[in-house]
Specification:
about 130 residues; mainly alpha; two-stranded antiparallel sheet; 2 strands; about 50% helix; about 5% strand; globular
Length: about 130
């Protein structure tokens, strides 16, 4: 039996995912922050499924080449990445923003407002 399609309100998550990826790579000038080679991938430092508030936060991203991205979730790769990013910001926000409901309540926004504001922020980075 086919599943019924769910009609979503507001922006599709894929729109934000693509904008986040492009904004991270634009900020890093399309260079791998680890080896300084060509940056092809935008990597979530805190996994996007673990933390709603950090999912599309540009500070939770780093541009990597394919080789460095393959190593990113190993212990040595993670340690290397944490030296290159604002780990204090990430650690502070990781605990506060795990659950969607708690995050939106703390921000005083509904989900559509939050997604619209986040997309606007990402577009500002992309467009300079």
């Amino acid at each position: 039996m086919p599943r019924a399609k769910v009609k979503r309100k507001g922006l599709a998550p894929s729109t934000l995912d693509k904008a986040w990826s492009l904004a991270v790579k634009t900020r890093d000038k399309f260079r791998c922050r680890v080896c300084l080679g060509e940056g092809t991938d935008a990597h979530h430092i805190i996994h996007r499924g673990q933390n709603y508030g950090m999912k599309w936060d540009i500070e939770n991203g780093i541009t990597l080449c394919r080789k460095c991205h393959d190593r990113a979730d190993t212990l040595s790769g993670r340690k290397e990445i944490m030296k290159l990013v604002n780990s204090e910001y990430l650690e502070h926000n990781e605990a506060d923003f795990r659950l969607k409901h708690d995050f939106l309540k703390k921000k005083g926004l509904d989900e559509i407002e939050f997604k619209s504001l986040r997309l606007k922020e990402l577009k500002e980075v992309i467009n300079g």
